Amino acid sequence: MILSSIKNLAGKTALAFAALTTLFSSANLAQANVVAGRDYTVLNQPLSTVPSVSMAMSFSCVHCAEFTRVYRVPEKIEKMLKETFPNNHEFLEWHIVMEDIQLYRDFARLRAVLYATDNDKLLPEAFELPYTYANDPAPLKKWLQGKLKLSSEDVNNLWTSFSVNTFYKREVELTKAYEIRQTPTFIINGKYEMNIGAISIDSTTEPTPDQIGDAVVKQIKQILLATWKKPEAKK
Predict the structure, then answer these.
(1) What's the pLDDT tens digit per position in 191-219?
(2) Does the pLDDT of residue 32 top 70, yes or no?
(3) Is there a contact between 210 and 67 (Cβ–Cβ < 8 Å)?
(4) Is 185:11 a contact under the CB 8 Å cutoff?
(5) Whole-number Å distance between alpha carbons of 84 and 218
(6) From CA 133, how far away is CA 152, in angstroms rounded?
(7) Superkingdom of this entry's organism (predicted)?
(8) How far apart are CA 140 and CA 115, in angstroms?
(9) Domain 40-227 maps to which CATH number in 3.40.30.10, 3.40.605.10, 1.20.140.10, 3.90.226.10?
(10) What separation, in Å, do the N-terminal and C-terminal C-alpha atoms of the chain show?
(11) In b/e form, how buried is each residue of 173-186, taking b as 16+ CB within 10 angstroms?
């Protein structure tokens, strides 16, 4: 299970990198076409109305931090979507919510604040926050004060605002609907879950972070193109 708490991310970077590379297939085994059951799982969910990629993540997940900060996967996904579907696409990076665990509730709400205020650029930095978290959202709110240049009162109001509550509820619903049990998890076109372990990297040496990021996004793109069907207009 990839869900793991960040206790010392800096000290685990090399270990996490080595562990993550084992998730992918061996060199020179790239598949020409993606196949259901091997490269992705078909879920009992409706097809999205636009080409979409959804990334379920957690700020307390070592691999999520690596995917975002080292392999730059979200950044590469957005670039790919703009190039592939320039007029209509959606990418959503959302935090899982286990409602019986305060850590997930607080960090999902933090992610909701960044979404509601159009500050996704702060997501990479937010992976540092588990260092100072101790079942109390105060350090998260203090961080928001500094980053968003807001008063303590403004942050408290924002924390429970309508827009934040709306996105938070969406995170809860997505976690339940897709039965997320590990992170990162990629849902493509609302209906297909990518099998990270099926990704292959065409390299005869240990892959670089950039090669890993490119391989992940290449696989996402292949599934995206193979499964996207424009929904039929209602009669």
Answers:
(1) 999 999 999 887 778 899 999 999 999 99
(2) no
(3) no
(4) no
(5) 12
(6) 18
(7) Bacteria
(8) 15
(9) 3.40.30.10
(10) 45
(11) ebbeebebeebbbb
